[in-house]
Amino acid sequence: ALLDGGAKPLAGRTAVVTSGPTHEPIDPVRYIANRSSGRQGHAIAAALARLGADVTLVSGPVTIPDPKGVKVIHVEQAAEMLDAVLARLPADIAVMVAAVADWRVATLNTEKIKKQPGEGPPPLMLTENPDILKTVGHSDKRPTVVVGFAAETQDVESNGRVKLQKKGADLIVANDVSPETGIMGGTRNSVKLITAEGIEAWPDLSKEDVADRLAGWIATRLT
Ligand code: CTP
Ligand code: CA
Q1: At the top level of its lineage, which domain of life is listed (predicted)?
Q2: Which pLDDT does position 2 carry in this prediction?
Q3: What is residue 21's predicted lDDT score, i.e. its pLDDT?
Q4: pLDDT tier at 141 (50, 70, 90 boundaries)?
C-alpha cells in the first residue's frame, strides 16, 4: 500500500534462489567454471527476504558474504545445486540466477593429471550437466513463479525468448554480458524482462536495484 514501508507482500511465501558459478572438477586441483561473482543472485535472495519471503539461497563458490535474512546452502557442482534446489520444492518462487557450468568432465580423475612430456595436452571428454532451471520449470512441483536469467553476448531478445519457452519459465531476465558492457563481475546491470506478454527493458541499474524491482515484480505476479 502507499507509504507502507513495512509491507511484506511475500510473507508466508517460500523462495529458492541459485547464485554464483558452479565448479566442475577435472581432477583434485583443477576445475571448469563460468564467470560469476554471485552479486546479482545474492541481491535477489536478500530482496525477496526483505519482502517477507522465506528464502533459501543455493550458492556456488563465491567470495562475497552470505546475504542477511536468508538460509544459505553452499554447493560446488551443478549436480549438487540441482539436488539442493529440488529438496526445497514445493516452493512458491524459484529464481535461477546461477551461472551453471554447462559441462563437466565425463570421468573424474581421482589423481592429479600430470604433464606427459612429448604426449601433448590430455584430451578432456565432457558431458552435459543437468539444467536446473528447466528441471524446475517442468517439475510436477513447479513453483508458481519461475524466473531464469539469460546471459547472452548476442541476439539477447531472440535467445531470451527461446529460453523462456524451453525452460518453462514465467520470466527470463536477459542481459548482454559482452565484455565491453562490464556487467560480468561488475556492480551494475542492464536487463530486459522477457515474458509471454512481451519485452520490457529496464534502465541501467545497480544489481541491488534490479533485485528490488524483480522482487516487486514477483510479488505482483503472486497476488
Ligand atoms: N541454467 C540452469 N542449469 C544449467 C544451465 C543453465 O539452471 N545447467 C539456468 C541459469 O541459471 C539461467 C538460465 O538457465 O537462469 C539460462 O542460462 P544460460 O547459460 O543463459 O542458458 P543455457 O540454457 O545454458 O544455454 P547457453 O549457455 O547455451 O546459452
Ligand atoms: Ca549455459
Answers
A1: Bacteria
A2: 61
A3: 98
A4: very high
| Annotated binding residue 183 | no
Helices 207-222, 39-50: inter-axial angle, 10-degree rounding: 50
Written as one string, the DSSP assignment of 169-198 is -SEEEEEE--GGG--TTSSEE-EEEEETTE
pLDDT tens digits along 168-217? 999 999 988 877 777 777 888 889 999 999 999 999 999 999 999 999 99
User: Cell 565432457 sits at which residue?
Assistant: 126
The three grid cell numbers given for residue 178, joined into one nine-digit string = 559482452
Q: Is the separation of the CB atoms in 24 and 63 below 8 Å?
A: no
Q: Any idea where the domains of the chain sit in the sequence?
A: 14-110+126-222
Residues with C-beta less than 6 Å from any ligand 1 atom: 18, 78, 96-98, 100, 102, 129-133, 148-151, 163
Topology, domain 14-110+126-222: Rossmann fold (3.40.50)
Pocket test for ligand 1, best of 104, 127, 133 (most atoms within 8 A of CB): 133
Q: What is the rounded average pLDDT of the residues 49-57?
A: 98
**Cross-strand bridge partners of residue 192:** 174, 201
Give the pLDDT confidence score for residue 178 in this predicted structure.
79
Phi, psi of 163 (to 5 degrees): -65, -40
